[in-house]
Each structure stands twice: as structure tokens, then as C-alpha cells.
């Protein structure tokens, strides 16, 4: 602490802005006069997820009694699923309009009660520049069926944000109401939405004429015919970047939409099971006539099901390797064609995750010797069981590795270590997941862990986990690793209601564990056994928790955050 105190106040204030406000005050408030003054003079970012109950209650009491601290709050993230208190209770005790400097607001898993509270307060947040929210499953379902004349809950109404002249970024699950009735425009420059229709995007262009970036995280589709689309559409002249992670519309519908984005420079999209979308000639015509400023075009087009005519598929894919693509734009592609699937993607591969279910043949690419083709991939799932010698690809930046196969059972002499180290930079892997279909033996698990020295997170099926203590070599290896996060899951849904067997010998193999996800804990004594077994544990998530434990936690002050999905018994 003495070294920290020697830093200039300007440096300390910059550092403090990266620390969650509740943790900041817990660590530095009342430590000495210097730090007590500093933490009261920096912009505060509040996020109660995974904060222990004692820290949560202590900080809530602090902001209730000190209006200056509340005035310093610039970012607030509330959730109905990750904190001890729900959004409604927090907002009733701390109205949003009392955070007069608030610039960023994120609300996770909201329900209809939260919406009623927010609807009155949101328009008064004049400094807000970023608003993001998600709904819980039941509320989202109610909003969905309301479109078919059924239950109609109080939904997010975008007229509420009209007074927010400083709002620039909006993130929403989907548009709950049609925007054709909108009479005013907003100054939004960035919109992220989970699901929407093509027609709704056209309405958005008129509603937010300054829009620069649009991101659709889950699904773009169309429930209308093109002739039924809005007649109020205008060119999104400021839109330069569009990302669509799952495009389920037809090419004709997407083409109609993109013609309203004349200044688009970056386009990234994924599309599955739509042969109509894989048409190089139509894409070339669209780009030449409507997207003249497009400089970056990234895509992944895939087809599942039987490939009846291999040569026809080759002809379709090869058209993406003509002069327009290679010489004029320097856009390169690679493709894979198998018996039951086919895909073509731009390279470097544009996605963060990749499913390696068959050998990759880079001979279809002019960049076959480029070892950086998969540099964007951070999550890799492996389902390949052939000998890896001379494989032409390399995943150098993978952080999360999931195994779905057992090469040791299929290739004599082929081990996990040999196979994985030939295609993955194992020194970068920090998370390992064993799929439930991958019946890995203890020797196979040892082989994997030996080549992954920096793994700190492990996801493993319960049956394998419970028998770890029976193998001395595996125990020694696990103790030598610094496993801080452990996710123990079941391979059968029916087993998810079977209480965990707390085996102290197995628990002792994870002395550094800080976070544990498990399936089912019913009795209080079992919970206490878990807490004793993992002395460094700070976060525990239980998918099914006993009713008696929930009642017991109400009266306890724990130095651990306990989260759960469902209460049983």
C-alpha cells in the first residue's frame, strides 16, 4: 500500500475508474484520509454482479447516506439475476433520477414491474448517453406472443427516449412496437439489437437519421413481403458499419435493405441454409451499384444437409475468387465441401468461434500459406479425429478450447497432446471444456492438461469430476495448475436434480478455486461443506438450490456471492 500511496493523485484517479465502485470503497474507503478523499472524488462505475452480500449492503447504505457519492456515479449496471437484490428494490431505494451524472445505464433480465418504474424515470436522465437492457425469459415470451393478439405486457416504449438528447448508444433485445408512428427523431449513432425484421431496420433509418453503426446479434429476418415494407424509409447516409451475426432473410430482402446504406464501408454477416445468398454475381452487382464505398466485406455462408451435386457447389463457390474479389478488392475466401455440409468464408476468418468438425483444406484459398487465417478465433471446438501431421492451419489466439472427440480411441498412437499442440498455440489457452459426448479417460485428461500450463478455468462432466481423486498423477497435475474457475455439469437432464456428492478428496485438488458452478445443492450442511472445502471461493452458482438454503441465506452475512437459477423442494 505504501508504494501505491506514492503515485500522483491523477494516476490513482485513473486507476480507480477501472475498479467497480462497491469494491473500490470496500478496499480503500476509511483506509486513510488520503484514500478516503480520493474515492469520493472520482467517477464511479457501479456493477453489483458477483459482489458479496456484505459488500453490497455496505455500499447501498453508503450511497443512501451520502449524496455526493451518488452524484459521482456515471455508470450503473443492475440485474435481476446476478445480485442479492432485484432491480425494483434497488430503484425504489435509489431512484434513477437521483443519479444526476449518470451517463451509462444497463438493466439485465428486466420484467414488467421494472418497466413500469423505468417508464416514469428514464426521460429525466438528461446526461444519459448509453442505455442497454435485456428482459427475463417470461417477459420476453409475453412480449413475443403479444404480437399475435395474446397477453400484452407493459413493454419498452421508444418514445420514452425522445427527451434524451445526449443518448447516442442503444442496446435492446428487439423492437417491441412499430416505429412508423414515430413523429420525432433521436440522435442515436449506434444501435445493437438481438432480433429484428428488415422492415424494422428501414423504420430505424428514418427514426435515427444520424446512425453510424448497426449490429444485429442474433437474427435478421423478414415477416413481410418487400412490397409491404415501410414507405417512410430514407437513406442511412451516415451508416458506415453493419454487422449481422445471423441473417435469415433472403438475398432479395437484404439487397433491398442495403440499397438504403450508400456510404457503408464495413459489412459483416453470417447466413445459414440459404443457397440464394451464396451468389457471387449478385453480390458483385449490389456492391458495384449500391455499395460503392464498401472496403471491408466479411461473411460466412454455410449449408447443412446432403450435398447432391459436388461440382455444382464448387462452381458456386469458385465465383467468389474472380478478379472483382481478388484483384479489385483483395477479398479472399476459403471453402469446405463435405457429404452433409458446405461452407465458404472470407479470410482471415471473421468469427470469434470456430467449430472444427473436419479437416480444413486451404488449397481452395490463394492464401493457403498464410498462418494468420484463424487469428480472430478465440473459442475453438474440436471434433476431428485424424492424424494431424502436416495440417495446414493454426489457431494461435485461442483462449477457450472445447473437446468433442476422443482421438485416443480412434487413432492408434494419437494422443491429445500430439493432436492439439499441432493446431493450437496451447500457451494461450486459459479455459478447457470437455463436452458431455467426449468420454475422456483420466489418462486422456492428463494428456490434455500437461500441454495447457495456463489453464485457469475448467468445465467438466460430474461423473469425471467425482472420480478425479482416484488418480494420483491427475491429482498432482491439478494441484500444480492454478484452476480458479470450475464448472461441474451433468450429461443427462434428469441428473441435474440429483444433489452433488461433496467429496473432500476431490475438492482438495483445487486449492485456488474462486468460482464454482454446480448443478444441485439441497441441504444447508452440504452447502457449508462446499464452503469449507474451497476456502478461497468468492462466487458460487447453483442451478438448482434447496428452499431451506434460500431461507437460511436471508439471515446470514456471507463473504461469498451465491447465485441460483431455480428453487426446488
Write structural notes for this entry.
There is one protein chain. The protein is of the alpha/beta class and 569 residues long. Among the domains are: 1-127, no CATH class; 178-347, no CATH class. The protein contains 22 helices and 21 strands. The chain has a twelve-stranded mixed β-sheet with strand order 1-2-3-4-5-6-7-8-9-10-12-11. The chain is globular, with a radius of gyration of 27 Å. Mean pLDDT is 85; it is low at 147-154. This is F-box domain-containing protein. InterPro entries: F-box-like_dom_sf, F-box_dom, LRR_dom_sf. It comes from Adineta ricciae.
Describe what is shown at a glance:
Residues 1-51 form the F-box domain. The chain has 22 helices and 21 strands.
Strand and helix layout:
Blueprint: H1 2-5, H2 9-16, H3 21-28, H4 33-39, E1 44-47, H5 53-65, H6 67-71, E2 73-79, H7 87-93, E3 104-110, H8 112-121, E4 130-135, H9 137-145, E5 169-172, E6 190-197, H10 198-207, E7 213-221, E8 241-244, H11 251-258, E9 266-272, H12 280-290, E10 296-304, H13 310-318, H14 323-328, E11 332-337, E12 341-347, E13 353-356, E14 379-382, E15 400-403, H15 407-410, H16 416-423, E16 431-434, H17 442-450, E17 457-461, H18 462-466, H19 472-480, E18 485-489, H20 504-507, E19 515-521, H21 524-533, E20 539-546, H22 547-554, E21 561-568
Helix pairs in contact: 3-5, 17-19
Protein name: F-box domain-containing protein
Domain F-box: 1-51
Organism: Adineta ricciae
Amino acid at each position: 500500500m505504501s508504494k501505491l500511496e506514492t503515485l500522483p493523485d491523477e494516476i490513482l484517479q485513473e486507476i480507480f475508474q477501472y475498479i467497480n465502485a462497491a469494491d473500490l470503497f470496500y478496499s480503500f474507503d476509511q483506509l486513510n484520509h488520503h484514500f478516503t478523499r480520493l474515492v469520493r472524488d472520482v467517477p464511479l462505475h457501479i456493477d453489483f454482479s458477483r459482489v458479496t452480500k456484505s459488500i453490497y449492503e455496505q455500499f447501498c447504505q453508503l450511497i443512501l447516506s451520502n449524496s455526493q457519492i451518488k452524484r459521482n456515479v456515471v455508470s450503473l449496471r443492475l440485474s435481476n439475476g446476478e445480485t442479492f437484490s432485484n432491480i425494483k428494490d434497488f430503484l425504489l431505494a435509489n431512484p434513477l433520477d437521483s443519479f444526476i451524472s449518470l451517463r451509462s445505464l444497463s438493466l439485465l433480465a428486466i420484467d414488467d414491474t421494472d418497466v413500469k418504474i423505468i417508464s416514469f424515470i428514464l426521460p429525466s436522465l438528461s446526461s444519459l448517453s448509453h442505455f442497454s437492457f435485456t428482459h427475463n425469459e417470461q417477459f420476453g415470451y409475453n412480449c413475443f406472443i403479444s404480437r399475435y393478439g395474446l397477453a400484452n405486457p407493459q413493454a419498452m416504449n421508444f418514445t420514452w427516449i425522445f427527451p434524451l438528447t445526449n443518448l447516442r448508444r442503444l442496446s435492446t433485445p428487439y423492437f417491441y412496437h412499430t416505429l412508423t408512428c414515430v413523429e420525432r427523431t433521436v440522435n442515436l449513432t449506434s444501435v445493437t439489437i438481438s432480433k429484428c425484421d428488415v422492415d424494422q431496420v428501414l423504420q430505424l433509418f428514418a427514426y435515427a437519421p444520424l446512425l453510424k453503426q448497426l449490429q444485429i446479434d442474433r437474427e435478421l429476418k423478414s415477416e413481410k413481403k418487400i412490397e409491404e415494407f415501410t414507405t417512410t424509409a430514407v437513406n442511412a447516409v451516415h451508416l458506415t458499419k453493419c454487422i449481422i451475426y445471423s441473417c435469415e432473410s433472403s438475398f432479395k430482402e437484404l439487397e433491398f435493405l442495403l440499397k438504403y446504406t450508400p456510404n457503408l464501408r464495413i459489412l459483416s454477416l453470417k447466413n445459414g441454409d440459404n443457397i440464394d445468398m451464396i451468389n457471387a454475381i449478385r453480390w458483385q452487382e449490389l456492391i458495384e451499384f449500391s455499395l460503392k464505398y464498401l472496403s471491408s466485406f466479411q461473411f460466412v455462408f454455410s449449408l447443412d444437409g446432403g450435398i447432391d451435386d459436388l461440382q455444382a457447389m464448387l462452381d458456386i463457390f469458385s465465383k467468389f475468387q474472380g478478379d472483382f474479389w481478388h484483384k479489385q478488392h483483395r477479398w479472399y475466401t476459403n471453402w469446405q465441401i463435405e457429404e452433409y455440409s458446405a461452407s465458404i468464408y472470407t479470410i482471415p476468418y471473421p468469427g470469434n468461434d470456430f467449430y472444427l468438425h473436419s479437416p480444413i483444406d486451404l488449397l481452395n484459398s490463394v492464401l493457403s500459406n498464410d498462418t494468420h487465417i484463424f487469428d480472430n478465433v478465440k473459442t475453438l471446438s474440436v471434433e476431428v479425429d485424424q492424424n494431424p501431421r502436416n495440417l495446414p492451419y493454426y489457431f494461435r489466439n485461442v483462449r477457450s478450447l472445447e473437446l468433442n472427440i476422443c482421438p485416443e480411441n480412434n487413432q492408434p498412437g494419437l494422443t491429445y497432446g500430439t493432436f492439439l499442440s499441432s493446431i493450437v498455440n496451447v500457451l494461450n489457452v486459459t479455459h478447457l471444456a470437455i463436452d458431455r459426448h467426449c468420454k475422456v479417460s483420466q489418462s486422456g485428461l492428463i494428456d490434455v492438461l500437461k500441454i495447457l500450463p495456463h489453464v485457469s478455468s475448467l468445465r467438466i462432466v460430474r461423473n469425471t469430476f467425482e472420480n478425479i481423486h482416484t488418480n494420483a498423477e491427475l491429482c498432482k497435475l491439478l494441484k500444480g495448475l492454478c484452476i480458479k474457475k470450475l464448472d461441474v455439469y451433468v450429461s443427462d437432464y434428469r441428473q441435474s436434480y440429483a444433489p452433488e456428492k461433496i467429496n473432500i478428496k476431490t475438492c482438495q485438488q483445487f486449492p485456488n478455486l474462486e468460482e464454482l458452478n454446480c448443478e444441485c445443492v439441497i441441504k444447508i450442511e452440504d452447502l457449508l461443506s462446499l464452503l469449507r472445502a474451497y476456502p478461497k471461493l468468492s462466487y458460487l452458482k447453483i442451478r438448482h438450490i434447496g428452499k431451506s438454503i434460500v431461507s437460511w441465506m436471508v439471515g446470514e452475512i456471507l463473504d461469498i456471492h451465491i447465485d441460483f437459477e431455480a428453487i426446488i423442494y
